[in-house]
Design goal:
By secondary structure, the chain is an alpha+beta fold. The protein is built from 10 helices and 11 strands. The chain has 2 domains: about 100 residues, Phosphorylase Kinase, domain 1; about 220 residues, Aminoglycoside 3'-phosphotransferase, Chain: A, domain 2. The N terminus is likely disordered.
């Protein structure tokens, strides 16, 4: 949704966009969009009544990868249409992607206002989108280095070693005041016990969104009043691997889901063509430890830091009962 108004891009940058990316359309209004935590998204409205989103990459340049992924899945998954991409940063002195604006209500807002009977229907809609994402295969696991979408980029450090990854995150985490020494030690032990579950997914080659959660899903009412996914946003962390990463993500914070969603989701996912192995929930939780550990490295005032700490404490409490 639009957040604050005001001058975000200067006249020079707007002129460049008009001439090079917008085909002569003149920006008459610009507003920063709220909701994303990694990239800088700006809503642009033009003199022809059309709306676009300028997605900038000031920290991690995945512009070409994200644009290529949107083009790849556009016929099977609701995503914004790419209008222009500048991976080099030549035009605006930073990489950016320009897409058409997609209207919708963030799933976080839908969850907060949903009735009890809405949970199963929302699960059906979201699971259908996720199963369509996971139907894309690449032939091998890995990360994408560029818009060619070959999963052959070097992996992040310790990405294939869950205990080492968790330990590395804890050494630079801001969790000292939030997690005790015993809790941090227990988290590493949990990671060690979960390593075999992670190893069971080796070789998986599905398209993994890797940030598949309610803040990145826009919803709209369908013709019959049922909610449908209007757009899956923020593909900058996507890679080729096990789709169970995404299931761990969407189910990570159960208290934020509306009633009936979590219970319905696995059946809706398999009904839409997704595949779930035995012990899929345990595997998805193990894979989600990568994300939880990384969230502990964020600033304590980051919107997800406290939530991640709470999940870790729950895991530690369960660990003590093993």
């Amino acid at each position: 949704m639009a957040d604050d108004a005001g001058t975000i891009l200067g006249p020079g940058a707007l002129d460049v966009l008009t001439r090079r990316a917008l085909g002569g359309e003149i920006v008459v209004d610009q507003r920063r969009l709220s909701g994303g935590f990694s990239s800088d998204n700006v809503l642009l409205r033009t003199d022809r009544g059309r709306s676009f989103v300028l997605r900038r990459y000031p920290r991690r340049n995945t512009a070409a990868v994200e644009a290529a992924l949107l083009d790849l899945v556009q016929d099977r998954v609701p995503v914004p249409k790419v209008v222009y991409v500048d991976e080099s940063g030549e035009l605006l002195n930073e990489p950016f992607m320009l897409t058409r604006f997609v209207s919708g209500v963030a799933l976080t807002a839908v969850f907060s206002g949903a009735a009890d009977q809405d949970g199963p229907q929302l699960a059906d809609a979201v699971a259908e989108a996720l199963a369509s994402i996971h139907a894309v295969r690449f032939g091998q696991p890995g990360f994408f280095a560029d818009g060619a979408l070959r999963p052959d980029a070097p992996p992040p450090e310790h990405h294939d070693d869950l205990p080492a990854f968790v330990e590395a995150c804890l050494t630079r985490a801001h969790a000292d005041g939030a997690l005790s020494v015993d809790a941090r030690r227990a988290l590493v032990q949990i990671a060690a016990r979960s390593a075999s579950l992670v190893a069971a997914t080796a070789g998986a080659d599905q398209l993994v969104h890797s940030d598949f959660n309610a803040k990145n899903l826009l919803m709209r009412p369908g013709d019959n009043g049922a909610w449908r996914v209007s757009a899956v946003l923020d593909w900058e962390y996507a890679f080729s691997g096990s789709g169970l990463f995404d299931l761990g993500n969407i189910l990570r914070f159960p208290k934020e889901l509306c009633p009936g969603f979590a219970d319905r989701f696995p059946r809706a996912y398999t009904g839409a063509g997704g595949e779930l192995p035995a012990h899929w929930r345990e595997i998805s939780k193990a894979l989600d430890l990568f994300a939880l550990a990384e969230l502990l490295t964020r600033s304590p005032d980051h919107p997800l830091f406290a939530k991640a700490v709470a999940v870790v404490w729950e895991l530690v409490a369960q660990h003590r009962d093993w």
